[in-house]
Design a protein that fits this description.
about 1450 residues; mainly beta; 6-stranded antiparallel sheet; globular
């Protein structure tokens, strides 16, 4: 391979569409039904063998698939490397492959996978034949031969005199033998002894402890000269260590990408405490068995890579009955196993298990657990046939445990920790594929480390009802090797698939070990018997804590913690006091008798300072009476945590000697989002917004102008009164005074009958705070214990047990945007839990600020949160075309049959001769004897995708037992008026039955008893549901005896991913330039955006900053084939962007950013109309974020230079010209991002460019600002770029808030452009520039000149009149400067043209001239700026032809 300049380079990966992709041989063919298909043939020689300067061998063996064999057209292509890459090839051959004559086909399993120096990288690993000289000492001590070895050996090596934990036996290894991304296994036999030679038992993997077990490490120097470690713990747990014998060490590790450039490497066995003797033997380091090593780089004619060798290739001994013996098969739980003369094709006999006593009865065979590798996958294959006791075959047709027709499942029984455990494996073939003859069974399972270390394990077939006969043969359990993909991987950005997806190691005590956990400072980490589900799976607890700051801890990877990114913490916890008594924690206050535990990130910053970042339980203080309760928190990572060189996760807070119990700990990036919706046509389906009566708005008296004080009451002290000032547009607001405690606040009862469990609601409001002396202040934190905490919206409700609970919904607007003198926005979306929906009493309350402080509020609303409305998009959406698009069978009763519907729990399902409007039939379930009973169907779990949302829809009606129509009123379970709901019931792979209920999204108050009612509900698939052995859904809930009528039932995926662009997309001719004006720029720095056009077919270079996903979408702007789309944005700051190559940037040079875009909210396109951050209709903002040479982070924000005439369905132009400051040009890290949209909005974008901006003499000219001026020097003209015609914004700002941009609808004095100040939040906001105080001389006279016009908040131009903060006010020129003592002062310059009787013109620009004298203190000011201000908030100011200088500048 060479690049476009003919410079050879080495490919580094088989990953598709990356910069280092290796060539891929592909046969493209058209199947008999006309579909185009691909067969990808991977090279047997991996990227690690690539030599950039030589021709490299490509060799592979493949099998022709049946549909290719029938194809009439096929093409071979060598593809994969990036565009512009040159592929040189020779000696090409494609020929039938035959086995090598020297190896008989039946002996292929014994062929050694590899035969070069990289197959075994340790020299003298066996002390029997090895030389101790091949080993050297890392650190201190001495390596000697030892006259005692592992079982079967007479010798070993030993390392004595070790001075530290990093000392150990070492060997240099060849870096060229390691392939990045591949896994390798280190194996050794180890024994330890104290310095005086006594055998020693290590007890922990925790680092730097006296009982620390040895670890394997490989230390290497990468291409940047940095030394790094690859560490691997022993998969054989410390609890299995026997001090008197040699112990097996098995460590599996993956080689990182930067190892490709490693210059040197060595392995070392280290970790044991200083002085401990390490004895070792049988040391091996080789490619991992179940990922076959790459073949040697030799000239082979034919090569067949066996997947495994020896007895571990198949764990079943007696696989068939053709030899006439039952062999190793035994009956379990009764019955008899025999050999019968009946077998599937290719077999004459089979095994038969009859006289089975229970569903648990079945044939078993012992497994060799030495062959099992922890965390590896294995595949079960067998053939089976079901018969009754009289020998008649029948078709198994159910997944219900123990029923006669239950299909068999495979089970792995194993013994561990003193008890038997099971792994159930279901058949991937569906019930619909079963026959009354021989059937196939295929299933895959993962062998846990506990199973791999089990002393005893069995394979078993079980499940069918007793007396059913199971015939079986051709049984295999083999290592599962994934089949290579037929097509290249799809172009999508996965939510998370690296080591940072889960930051906690061993968070679930079911693992049977405390690995990863250590006791901070003192005490011990122990496993407890009971877990949070009250099962014997275990939990962790910390005993003998030496103080409140001590607790269980775990080391986190600082590189996985991204500043500003949200992380989700979840765990279960409970506490005991020093007397070993369970207690209910009652306070977050530190080190008190009943302190609740908190979580802290303990870290040491880059400069060595130790810090704590505390995370409190967002579920609040729990009255749990010693039972397990949830600890849930969302937190953002501070900047210095990411820069820390060590970070510990720590649970602490309760006093000394208190016990902390915990389990199921998880910390994950908050990234998991549903996929893109799929629809059947260009018109998207509408999820109807059903809202009737009082349930549309749950808060009464939202504002004080018209509201009634009686609707509000004070919670925990104080009084709610009307205040004579309100937010814009209001004359009054509500005010809560006399607050006794932090939890005090204004409250209002809400009707819980309006709340539907699982449905989202949105709260909005306006808030302001003041101290008890009346002075307003700005809150600055969400930390509830702080004295400057912002208000918190909460719902306080009483659950079914009579206990009061809080549901908190934190403001989505960060405290940093709070302005003390104004009403501030509050928005929060939350999901209603079942307990709240079933509550008999609930009220909202605004709480949090310190006692005595006043809370002002207005315009508070609580509504159902519906985001989807119907819209016809201008691009087609993908159509689902597989068997999982609809999971309900026979959902429409017009079929005339009740097939596939099951009366779960009893009763009968029949076809009813009356149906919904437009239908003649419906289904009817009668004779129900309990609320759990209802009509249901089997749920095909193989179709379910973890994390995906699914939608259940239908029409439903209920009658009582007498046939009268029934009015349901509640979603509370087992009530006389309970409404229908959907229950998902399933059996986990461990055989446990579980269920969850899903309520109708339409609330009970909308139920119409005489009609068929819409039923719509959504649920998200969990890992347990997707792995369930059996599952079904049921319409249940109404009382016993009631009749459920239903029709038009559908269950389908709600969200899908659009297909990626065709991998065969032609890239010819895709050359475009955005420099404009015939620029002659050449080289890589002419265009700073990679893959700016989606038609390149590659998203390389694009990043979803702040979360979300970037996808391809069909139909770009202007007829192009594709565009990009950023969706699932979790924050206002989130957006698409790219790294910026600062080496290309020149300080002072202007650059031009352009982009085509349109915006969507759910399935609706919309028009933005504001530059204001956090505005619901805010437009996108182009921002550059960079790190200054000083280490500080900074933003450059550039609003669109084009006017806000945004179109809804068509693409819009974004154009911004910016000047590079020196700090950006000198930065070593920068990126740009499109941000500012509300978090639930998305953006379609394409044709993105950042390029040098060069003047076109025909359009622009470089202004000479001092052309006709009398004075000379920098202080003659104090306004930079005062003429908008030049389209340069350098120098312009908005003080203190708002944006500055260009308006292209005409400028002053015949110009085509003007500046526009938009997004003003207050009267003092406006356009202006910084001033240099030293330019002003005491007593000097200065002239300000400008042309201006004004517009109200709607954008309507109006003729202003002199005034200040009035509806028709004109702007006022002002200078604000800061004195030496820190105080500030205003200078206001009156417009000399203000005497106009009729005010200024609305249509034209009006003049502003102001002559003013300078006070002495302005020249000594520490800082100063001028601004045009005085208009009401939201009004717009247009300004052009601006100048400021001494009067002599105009000849006065």
């Amino acid at each position: 391979l060479t690049n476009e300049y003919n410079i050879p380079y080495a490919c580094t990966t088989t990953k598709w569409r990356t910069a280092g992709t290796c060539p891929l041989a592909t046969i493209r063919y058209r199947t008999a039904d006309g579909k185009e298909n691909f067969l990808n043939i991977n090279n047997s020689f991996g990227p690690g063998y690539w030599d950039k300067d030589l021709f490299n061998t490509y060799e592979a063996v493949f099998t022709v698939p049946e549909d290719m064999h029938q194809s009439e057209e096929a093409t071979f292509v060598l593809r994969g490397p990036p565009k512009e890459t040159i592929i040189m090839f020779d000696d090409f051959s494609l020929a039938p492959w035959h086995h090598s004559p020297e190896v008989a086909p039946e002996d292929l399993e014994t062929v050694t996978p590899c035969e070069n120096e990289c197959c075994q990288m340790i020299q003298s690993g066996d002390a029997e034949v090895g030389d101790v000289k091949d080993w050297y000492v890392a650190g201190g001590g001495d390596i000697r031969e030892h006259s005692y070895g592992p079982e079967g050996s007479t010798k070993s090596f030993k390392h004595v005199g070790r001075l530290g934990i990093n000392d150990g036996p070492a060997q240099v290894v060849n870096p060229g033998c390691f392939v990045p991304g591949k896994r390798y296994i280190f194996h050794a036999e180890l024994k330890m002894a104290t310095p005086d030679g006594r055998p020693f038992r290590c007890t922990t993997q925790q680092w730097n402890q006296d009982g620390t077990c040895p670890i394997f490490s490989m230390r290497y120097t990468n291409g940047e000269g940095k030394e790094k470690y690859i560490n691997s713990d022993n998969a054989n747990l410390p609890m299995a260590w026997n001090k008197d014998y040699f112990n097996p060490f098995r460590g599996i590790f993956t080689v990182p990408e930067d190892f490709l450039t490693a210059t040197q490497a060595y392995i070392v066995i280290r970790g044991a405490s200083a002085g401990k003797i390490i004895m070792f033997d049988d040391v091996k380091l080789q490619p991992y068995l179940h990922v076959p090593p790459e073949p040697p780089h030799t000239e082979l004619q034919h090569y067949s890579a066996p997947v495994c060798q020896g007895e571990c290739c198949d764990l079943i001994i007696d696989r068939t009955a053709d030899e006439g013996s039952t062999g190793a098969w035994q009956p379990k739980f009764g019955g008899e196993i025999s050999v019968v003369s009946d077998g599937p094709a290719g077999h004459t006999s089979s095994f038969k298990h009859n006289d089975r006593f229970t569903p648990h009865s079945g044939p078993i065979q012992q497994l060799n657990t030495d062959c099992l590798v922890g965390d590896e996958m294995y595949k079960i294959d067998l053939k089976f046939k079901m018969e009754n006791r009289y020998g008649k075959g029948f078709q198994c047709d159910t997944v219900t445990w123990g029923e006669w027709g239950k299909c068999p499942m495979s089970t792995i029984y194993y013994f561990s920790a003193g008890k038997w455990n099971t792994i159930d494996v279901t058949n991937r073939f569906q019930i619909s594929e079963m026959t009354d003859g021989w059937n196939n069974f295929e299933g895959v399972f993962t062998a846990s480390r506990v199973l791999a270390n089990s002393p005893l394990a069995y394979f078993m077939l079980r499940g069918p009802g007793s007396k059913a006969v199971i015939k079986f043969t051709d049984v295999h359990i083999k290592p599962f090797l994934f089949t290579p993909q037929v097509n290249p991987p799809p172009l999508e950005i996965p939510a998370c698939e690296n080591e940072c997806c889960e930051l906690i190691e061993n968070g679930d005590a079911i693992s049977g070990t405390t690995d990863g956990w250590f006791a901070e400072s003192s005490g011990d980490i122990v496993r407890h018997k009971w877990d949070p589900d009250n099962k014997e799976n275990g939990s962790f607890y910390h005993v003998r804590r030496g103080g409140a700051s001590e607790g269980p801890a775990q080391i986190l990877n600082p590189g996985c913690l991204v500043p500003g990114k949200a992380y989700a913490l979840n765990m279960f916890i409970r506490t005991r006091d020093a007397n070993n008594a369970w207690y209910t924690c009652e306070t977050q206050e530190w080190n008190q008798v009943k302190t609740c535990p908190i979580v802290s990130l303990k870290y040491r910053t880059a400069d060595g300072v130790q810090k704590y970042y505390n995370i409190q339980n967002q579920e609040g203080i729990k009255d749990y009476n010693g039972n397990w309760y949830g600890f849930t928190a969302m937190f953002e990572v501070p900047l210095d945590v990411n820069l820390a060189y060590e970070v510990d996760f720590l649970i602490r807070g309760p006093p000394k000697n208190y016990y902390i119990y915990w389990d199921d700990v998880s910390i994950k990036p908050f990234l998991h989002v549903p996929e893109e919706p799929q629809h059947d046509s260009e018109t998207l389906e509408t999820k109807e917004t059903i809202c009737t009566g009082d349930c549309c708005e749950l808060i009464k008296s939202n504002e004080a102008d018209t509201g009634e004080k009686s609707d509000w009451f004070d919670s925990m002290g104080g009084a709610v009164i009307k205040h004579p000032h309100g937010p814009p547009g209001r004359s009054m607001s509500w005010k809560h005074i006399g607050r006794a405690i932090k939890n005090s606040g204004p409250a209002q009862q809400i009707d819980t009958r309006c709340l539907v469990a699982g449905t989202k609601y949105k709260f909005t409001g306006l808030f302001k705070l003041a101290h008890n002396n009346g002075l307003t202040y700005a809150c600055d934190t969400f930390d509830y214990v702080s004295d400057t905490v912002c208000p918190l919206f909460s719902i306080n409700y009483r659950n079914a047990q009579g206990k009061w609970r809080f549901l908190n919904a934190e403001n989505e607007f960060h405290p940093s945007v709070w302005q003390k003198n104004y009403f501030n926005k509050y928005e929060a979306v939350f999901e209603v839990p079942q307990a709240l929906a079933e509550s008999d009493r609930a009220f909202i309350v605004f709480r949090g600020p310190p006692s005595g402080d006043h809370i002002f509020f207005s315009d508070v609303h609580l509504n159902p949160y519906f985001t989807d409305t119907a819209i016809t998009l201008d691009e087609p959406m993908p159509v689902c075309d597989n068997g999982c698009c609809e999971l309900t069978k026979n959902g429409d009763a017009e079929s005339g049959t009740n097939a596939d519907w099951i009366p779960i729990g009893g009763g009968s399902v029949m076809v009813h001769p009356h149906g919904p409007p437009g239908e003649t039939k419906s289904f009817r379930h009668i004779s129900r004897t309990g609320p759990n009973m209802g009509p249901g169907q089997v749920l095909n779990t193989t179709c379910l995708v973890v994390g995906e949302e699914y939608e259940i829809k239908g029409l439903i009606k209920v009658q009582d037992s007498a046939g009268k129509n029934f009015q349901c009123e509640t979603t509370t379970w087992n009530q006389p008026t309970t409404c229908p709901m959907v229950r998902i019931r399933y059996f986990t792979k461990n055989g446990k039955e579980k269920y969850f209920d899903i309520n109708n999204r339409i609330p009970p108050v909308a139920w119409k008893k005489d009609e068929y009612n819409d039923f719509t509900a959504f649920f998200t698939v969990t890992q347990a549901l997707a792995e369930a052995t059996d599952a079904y859904y049921i319409f249940s809930g109404p009382p016993a005896g009631h009749i459920i009528l239903f029709d038009n039932v559908s269950l389908k995926p709600w969200l899908h991913v659009p297909p990626p662009p065709s991998p065969s997309l032609s890239l010819d001719g895709l050359r475009y330039s955005t420099l404009g004006w015939g620029s002659t720029c050449e080289g890589a720095c002419c265009e700073l955006v990679q893959n700016g056009s989606a038609d390149t077919g590659s998203s390389e270079g694009w990043m979803a900053y702040g979360g979300g996903k970037i996808r391809f979408t069909p139909n770009g702007h202007g007829g192009t084939s594709h565009a990009y789309r950023h969706m699932y944005r979790p924050y206002v700051q989130s957006g698409p962007g790219q790294r910026l190559n600062t080496a290309c940037l020149i300080a002072g040079q202007r650059y031009r950013f352009t982009m085509m875009y349109k915006l969507n909210s759910g399935t609706t396109f919309y028009k933005c109309n504001s530059w204001t951050f956090h505005d619901p209709l805010a437009c996108p903002l182009f921002s550059i974020r960079f790190k200054k040479p000083s280490g500080e982070w900074a933003y450059i924000n550039e609003v669109n230079d084009l006017p806000l005439s945004v179109q809804k369905k068509n693409y819009n132009v974004y154009e911004a010209i910016f000047t590079v400051p020196p700090a950006l040009a000198d930065s070593d890290f920068a990126y740009w991002v499109i941000r500012g949209l509300p978090k639930d909005k998305g953006i379609f974008f394409d044709t993105v460019s950042i390029a040098p901006h060069l003047f076109d003499p025909a359009i622009e000219s470089v202004p000479d600002m001092n052309a006709d001026q009398a004075c000379d020097g920098a202080c003659c003209e104090m306004v930079l770029n005062g003429d908008a015609e030049n389209r340069i914004k350098s120098g312009w700002q908005t003080f203190p808030a708002g944006t500055i941009g260009f308006d292209f609808n005409g400028g002053a004095n015949g110009g085509t452009k003007s500046f526009i100040s938009d997004g003003r939040a207050a009267r003092d906001d406006g356009p202006g520039q910084l001033l240099t105080p030293a330019c002003f001389s005491e007593g000097g006279s200065y002239m300000f000149k400008a042309m201006f016009k004004t517009a109200d908040a709607s954008g309507a131009i109006y003729p202003c009149k002199p005034g200040f903060d009035t509806v028709d006010a004109c702007p006022v020129f002002s200078i604000k400067y800061t004195r030496a003592d820190g105080s500030f002062k205003w200078i206001n310059g009156r417009n000399a043209h203000s005497d106009s009787v009729n005010g200024f013109s609305a249509a034209n620009f009006s003049p502003y001239e102001s002559l003013f004298e300078v006070p002495a203190e302005l020249g000594q000011a520490t800082e100063a700026y001028w601004v045009m201000r005085g208009l009401p908030a939201g009004y717009k100011i247009y300004i052009d032809k601006v100048s400021l200088g001494p009067v002599e500048n105009w000849g006065f």
